[in-house]
Design a protein that fits this description.
- By secondary structure, the chain is an alpha+beta fold.
- Helix content is 21%, strand content 25%.
- Strands 1-6-2-3-4-5 form a 6-stranded antiparallel sheet, with no helix packed on it.
- The termini are far apart.
- About 3% of the residues have low confidence.
Length: 461
């Protein structure tokens, strides 16, 4: 049995009763210990309710001040409220302001707004504010303006388990003044900055989980390097049944310079797939390819049937040393022979009339082997995946499409436009003809440049 440091320390306790009590308490703590991503479940967030009527007993803050202290309304009179500043459990004022005298003051009602802690009874409702009708009979969109947690709670009543896709662009928690927790900006000096952010995100992810269709749906979450590690663990813990993949996307090719660090150009997208949801080919241009100039990704790749590199000798793979009988004019493969025993000389093999026997000979004319078996070769030939080349001193060169390239033909990455005289397919890149591809996990798309297509666009508008 492996002993821990605590076990060693407990052995040094002389009092048997005390040692037993300590052992009991330690065992209880071990049973409660969590593994994985551990963070504090912070005090529930507070939300402003601008339309909520102000009553005696309501908790309020200043409508216009971001750093307002929290007050309780103790009296209402002539359009104003008498306020008592709220104290915490230790008796200290919450966010005490210098203008407060003995924790009380008066303020006009129209300068105050009611706040509520998450967990308190808040029944979210939707009120129609307007519409834009330009789509004719096309499906319409709904924009919900409000606190996202309450908006998700409202949708839970009507769309639980029915949503196909959720895209979340949460605050990146960069340390800048980009998000608040309980009415306060969380800056990079807050020791609990990451923990507060995780508590904030987890509450919303749990609601998203209730909305997503478990049979087929996708959750997409964007983030940068400040929280991507913690977010990835949180997503795995919250959505155990999902298949997760991360994509990097260049959003600022010029880079954001930081002292002593590499210039940051990209952000990350987590894709979580549920049920039957999966990445599928879609019509995309060459910019969606990791390397558009690489013929291996833009052109169908024919590989030589002769094996090269290691295990390329006849003795290494004797079952792959067999004759391929090609018509004398090189327009087709007539048949293939059986693999020859190592003891049999290839010149003794019989050759059908009107055919040339092609053997897997290496550059130095030594005997090698083919890449695939006779049965797989003929099956590929029937599908047009084997091609005869020009005649050489050894006969005709033979190339074929490996399994990965064959799959690209079948899934539409390449589309067949015809066949050559030898029966091999003529295929073109689907992207060149507006066909479909599945992108890689590295995106460098011009339209994703936030400086050109974000800030500049807004400035122009």
């Amino acid at each position: 049995m492996i002993r821990s440091e605590l076990d060693v320390l407990l052995d040094k306790v002389q009092d048997p009763a005390l040692r037993a009590d300590l052992r009991s308490q330690i065992d209880r703590l071990k049973q409660k210990r969590s593994f994985g991503l551990v963070f504090a479940q912070h005090i529930p967030e507070r939300i402003r309710l601008p339309q909520h009527p102000i009553r005696v007993g309501s908790q309020v803050v200043s409508r216009d001040a971001d750093d307002s202290p929290t007050f309780e309304v103790i009296a209402l009179e002539d359009g104003s409220a008498t306020l008592a500043q709220v104290r915490d459990a230790d008796g200290a004022y919450l966010q005490r302001g210098e203008h407060v005298v003995d924790g009380q003051e008066r303020a006009p009602l129209d300068s105050l707004v009611v706040i509520s802690d998450f967990g308190e009874p808040v029944v979210p409702g939707l009120r129609h504010l307007g519409s834009v009708e330009r789509g004719g009979d096309k499906p319409y969109h709904v924009v919900i303006k409000g606190e996202n947690h309450h908006a998700l709670e409202a949708l839970r009543f009507t769309h639980a388990g029915k949503v196909d896709c959720i895209y979340i662009d949460p605050p990146y928690n960069s340390g800048a003044r980009d998000w608040k927790y309980n009415n306060d900006y969380v800056d990079d000096t807050d020791a609990y900055r990451h923990s507060k952010w995780l508590a904030f995100i987890e509450r919303r992810l749990k609601l998203a989980k209730e909305l997503l269709n478990p049979e087929a749906s996708v959750l997409i979450v964007t983030i940068d390097e400040k929280e991507y590690l913690r977010l990835g663990l949180l997503l795995e813990q919250t959505f155990g049944a999902a298949r997760m993949q991360m994509v990097s996307a260049v959003v600022n090719p010029a880079g954001v310079t930081r002292p002593g660090s590499f210039a940051r150009t990209d952000e990350y997208l987590f894709f979580l797939s549920f049920g039957t949801a999966a990445a599928m080919p879609v019509p995309l241009g060459d910019e969606w390819r990791a390397n558009p100039s690489d013929k291996r990704t833009t052109k169908i790749l024919w590989s030589m049937l002769n094996r090269t590199g290691t295990n390329a000798r006849r003795v290494d793979r004797p079952n792959l040393f067999y004759p391929i009988f090609v018509s004398a004019n090189g327009d087709r493969i007539v048949s293939v022979g059986d693999p020859l025993p190592l003891t049999q000389n290839r010149t003794t093999a019989s050759v059908p009339s009107g055919c040339i026997a092609m053997w897997p000979l290496r550059q130095d004319d030594s005997e090698g082997n083919w890449q695939i078996s006779p049965s797989r070769l003929m099956a590929a030939y029937e599908d047009g995946f084997v091609r005869l080349g020009k005649r050489s001193k050894r006969g005709f060169t033979i190339s074929y499409l490996k399994a990965g390239e064959q799959a690209k033909v079948r899934d539409g990455t390449y589309f067949v436009t015809g066949r050559r005289d030898d029966g091999s397919i003529i295929a073109e890149n689907a992207g060149d003809a507006g066909k479909s591809i599945i992108p890689t996990t590295a995106w460098r798309i011009g339209a994703h440049d936030a400086s050109r297509h974000g800030s500049n666009l807004l400035a122009t508008m």
